[in-house]
Write a structure and sequence with these properties.
Chain lengths: 183, 120
């Protein structure tokens, strides 16, 4: 049973205020948002920061809802993903992890690297270009989520793709929202 | 013309489209699971309205939050309003919500409709 204590210690060490693992749907998204919102409210966080955190959370959670169902492998549960929020003195971190098929890694990595190569104005231009030309995908996405997260964060998106097995990698994403509001 | 009235929920905005009383408003939170499906009746209503609009229309957006999938549909709504004569957008944002102000400014750059910005 040591793992309970170990998990608790990991959470404390990583300064995590919320961890959710399992199935992701619009319903769980709403519950997680409500929980995190209560947490932010009770800690008296500044409303501008609160809104940015909420914003990044919504995009991150809805990304998982829309895309983590790629996993149909009988060995691993479908929709198996993880969502975490960390709170440090100077920032919040919204983190997600979900399986991704190996052939899709390259495209996603390129898109994220492109976003990270842009400054504030570049991101604004990219956003406007996408919104003008996009159509809503079958999965309901507009292709704007990562761009929006980068804009709300003001920092680079952190990501990695550790290998799970021959077919899948695990897409890890970390989006920081600074707590000092000066832009 | 029929009134379109949807009560807001934790993930969908309140919508009132009422030609007779001149009330046109989308307010609250918009992060539905399927934004295209949610906004379809709104787009249908506007299409019908555009055939015989009021002389002037003040269309109010008073959004607290919207996700990116909704932002695409909001642009679709604005595009549908674009050709209606006497159209004006009233874009409300909370006084300390720079992101919502900026979002309104970006929309105003994407369509040919006058925007008036208001804080609440």
């Amino acid at each position: 049973m040591d793992f309970i204590y170990n998990l608790h210690r990991t959470m404390m060490n990583q300064q995590l205020i919320l961890v959710y693992e399992g199935e992701f749907t619009q319903e769980t998204t709403k519950s997680i948002l409500a929980m995190a919102e209560r947490n932010l409210d009770s800690s008296g966080e500044e409303s501008a920061i609160k809104r940015k955190v909420f914003n990044v959370m919504v995009e991150a959670l809805q990304n998982i809802v829309k895309h983590s169902d790629e996993l149909v492998d009988g060995e691993v549960r479908s929709h198996a993903a993880i969502f975490l929020i960390g709170k440090e003195p100077d920032r919040y971190s919204i983190m997600t992890g979900n399986p991704i098929r190996k052939p899709n890694v390259e495209k996603l990595k390129n898109a994220l690297e492109h976003i990270n190569s842009l400054d504030k104005d570049g991101l604004k231009e990219l956003y406007k270009n996408i919104i003008k030309n996009t159509t809503i995908s079958e999965k309901g996405g507009a292709g704007l989520g990562f761009v929006d997260m980068a804009r709300k964060s003001g920092e680079k998106l952190e990501f990695s793709f550790p290998e799970m097995n021959t077919e899948y990698c695990f897409f890890c994403l970390k989006v920081n929202v600074p707590r000092e509001s000066g832009e | 013309m029929e009134i379109l009235h949807l009560e807001g929920t934790e993930d969908t905005p309140k919508i009132i489209l009422d030609k007779k009383n001149g009330i046109f408003e989308i307010s609250g939170r918009s992060l539905p699971e399927d934004s295209a499906e949610f906004y379809r009746p709104v787009l249908d209503w506007i299409k019908q309205y555009s055939a015989d609009p009021n002389p002037t229309t003040d269309f109010v957006f008073k959004l607290e939050y919207f996700n990116t999938a909704s932002s695409k549909l909001i642009l679709d709504v604005l595009n549908a309003l674009e050709d209606i004569k006497g159209m004006k957008i009233l874009w409300y944002y909370h006084e300390d919500d720079e992101d919502m102000q900026e979002a309104g400014q970006e929309f105003s750059e994407l369509v040919e409709i006058p925007f008036e910005f208001k804080t609440y």
